[in-house]
Amino acid sequence: MPSRLNPYLSFDGNAREAMEFYREVFGGTLEVNTFGDFGGKEAAGAAADKIMHSMLETTGGFTLMGSDNPPGTAYTPGNSISVSVSGDDAEELRGYWEKLSGTGTVVVPLEKQMWGDVFGMCTDRFGITWLVDIVQQQG
């Protein structure tokens, strides 16, 4: 799978509603996962039904991702968009990560996550938040 770059939107508890709206606008297939889906409903607590990750893929070739802010993080309008780079070429994506995070700030280290992928989040020196996800091959 080639690497791809797409916007990632953050919402203040209404990600499901927003992503369903965008599906009505652009068409396509919407996949939605909640915090409870990955961490278990008890562990996720009040956030269990909030969106941890969603992805809308349209027949026109658009990809839009979104989530609710994780528990304990503030929603700040204007800072509600980041850029996602994902794929299965680990060398290529690690190269992007090193360059983006090298002069920036690492928010989440690039390491294996509970959903199986290697993921990291950083803010580059210009204040842009980047999400790097190395998709693990199904074996």
Automatic annotation (TrEMBL):
The Glyoxalase/fosfomycin resistance/dioxygenase domain sits at 4-130
Superkingdom to which the source organism belongs: Bacteria
Name the record gives this protein: VOC family protein
Cite the source lineage: Bacteria, Bacillati, Actinomycetota, Actinomycetes, Kitasatosporales
